[in-house]
Amino acid sequence: MNVSFSPRFLNNIYFKHSWYKHRLQLYRLFCSHKTCSNHSPDTSNVLEPELDRKTKFKHKLLEGPNLKDFFKDEHLASQEHLPEEEVAPYLRFSPKTNIKRKVYLDVYGCQMNVNDAEIVLAILKNNDFEPTKDLIEADVILILTCAIRDSAEEKIWGRLGFLKGLKRTRKKDRPSLKIECLVSIFAGLLGCMAERLKTKVLETSDMVDLVAGPDSYRDLPRLLSLTDTDQRSVNVLLSLDETYADISPVRLNENSISAYVSIMRGCDNMCTYCIVPFTRGRERSRPVSSILREVEQLSEKGVKEVTLLGQNVNSYRDISTDTKIDNVTTLAKGFKTVYKPKKGGLRFADLLNRVAAVNPEMRIRFTSPHPKDFPDEVVEVIRQHSNVCKNLHMPAQSGNSVVLERMRRGYTREAYLELVRSIRLKLPDVALSSDFICGFCGETDEEFEDTLSLMEEVRYNQAYLFAYSMRERTTAHRRFKDDVPPDVKQRRCLKRNKI
Questions:
Q1: Are 326 and 361 within 8 A, CB to CB?
Q2: What is the average pLDDT score of the chain?
Q3: What value does the CA radius of gyration of the chain take, rounded to a whole number of Å?
Q4: Rounded-to-integer distance, Cα 45 and Cα 238, Å
Q5: Under CATH, which number does the domain 256-388 receive?
Q6: What is the CATH number of domain 390-499?
Q7: Are 84 and 115 in contact (CB under 8 A)?
Q8: N or C: where does the chain have the smaller number of CB atoms within 10 Å of the terminal CB?
Q9: Alpha helices in 36-149 (DSSP H)
């Protein structure tokens, strides 16, 4: 049988045979080099440079850092790869740098600001600052600001302008004068007044040297030490647990027979017009034992009247470990919240009962409450204790249910009126006061008339009227338009004042 192959097929076979033969020769040369490199000089000339490169690479790996060098503990133990640690001078804090510097407090806003000023004084006195009531001799000027409305901001900006001129005139004689801005109500994670002050003041002018939020007062000595190095310092961080419970406030007026006691901080109500929940933070309460101890000390000093303070004072709830847990959550009838019902801990009625029992001759007040937190148990405690003042502040904000819903107040006009009737039935001699907002977003003349009729029906002993001022970062700022003209707001306020 004759078999014939094409030239192309024969060429392919020959090529494959030659390729395998060549690879086999290289393999044999490599083996002979490993076993007997001295007897194969021709092979060494070809492979030796390649082996040298591999050897050099292995040596580099051995000489370089290994895996242990990348662990922190190994670095700290050997100190071979770490430079000598140096602390920046402006981070070193020593209370001695601020010995006997005189500090002047300028307080704006509500009672909470007054109490915060007393806390600030206590912290600074413990760090060798000396309070002064003379603005001229002060080395440090602290301004506790309020910006709940535009009018409050305008006052503060005007004051800052005055202090800026004072600072310039003092540079020649006493160059150490510092103007600091303690943002007590508006300081937040979401860019409210503290952030705005940092941007507008610290970065664009020389008005102030420091901005501090309501939960950073403990950090003031360190922040003030930073200003000694001609730096501007900021701390506007909020806290979930700061209540300053362990700090005994230094009273601004030691001879006064009345005093403020802060029992809680923050607010969870999230009313659409209000910036406080974003800037004061979430609600947190002081332990009952801490509050009672402070009230007892005030009683021993001869104080005759104590006002319990909080952004939403009657939502107080002590959930510390030394209190009895009660899972019952109570609100006034017909009221609701935007948050989940809170459970456990001692509530405001329990605290009020204990505070009133400290000294039956001491008058007890509280502010500022929310109507939803007036369940029957709170009203009953007020009725039982003669030293608990029968003056209740019940901010309604509006008399129209649609506007109240837009404000996210958690109640209707009817529910509010029913609560008033219930309180007056149990406390016939009660004196009621309230807050009202004129010209909230979308408020019509008819809705405003409902507010006037509410005031006439309730017959408040006192009412506070405010033209609506939209605040950035609030829910109303994001969802609604401030569409009521300023002149209409003022006209409505004047009309209410006539009532």
A1: no
A2: 79
A3: 37
A4: 74
A5: 3.30.750.210
A6: 3.30.750.200
A7: no
A8: N
A9: 41-63, 72-78, 111-125
For 388, phi then psi, to 5°, come to: -85, 115
Give me the half-sphere count of Cα atoms (radius 13 Å) on the Cβ side of residue 352: 29
127-to-121, 131, 180 alpha-carbon distances in Å: 10, 12, 17
- CB-CB neighbours of 275 under 10 Å: 24
Please report how many Cα atoms fall inside a 13 Å half-sphere around the Cα of residue 182, on the Cβ side.
31
Pinpoint the alpha helices (H) of 306-437.
348-358, 376-384, 401-407, 413-426
CA 291, 293, 296, 301 torsion-angle sign = negative
| Most distant CA atoms of the chain, gap in Å | 134
Q: Which tokens hold the place of 454?
A: 């509410």
Give residue limits of the domains in the chain.
89-235, 256-388, 390-499
pLDDT (tens digit per residue) in 396-424: 999 999 999 999 999 999 999 999 999 99
Same fold flag, 256-388 and 390-499 = yes
Domain 89-235 sits in CATH at: 3.40.50.2300
Give CA–CA dist 354/348, Å, rounded. Answer: 10
Residue 93 pLDDT greater than 70, yes or no: no
- Read off φ and ψ for residue 406, nearest 5 degrees: -65, -35
DSSP character string of 130-170? EE-S-STT-SEEEEEE--SSHHHHHHHHHHHHHHHHHHHHH
Which stretches of 391-485 are DSSP H helices? 401-407, 413-426, 445-458, 475-479
Model confidence pLDDT, tens digit, residues 250-291: 898 888 999 999 999 999 999 999 988 888 889 999 999 999
CB 395 within 8 A of CB 368: yes
With a cut of 90, say whether residue 444 has pLDDT above it. Answer: yes
Higher-pLDDT residue of 189 and 74 is 74
Strands 284-285 and 233-235: unpaired
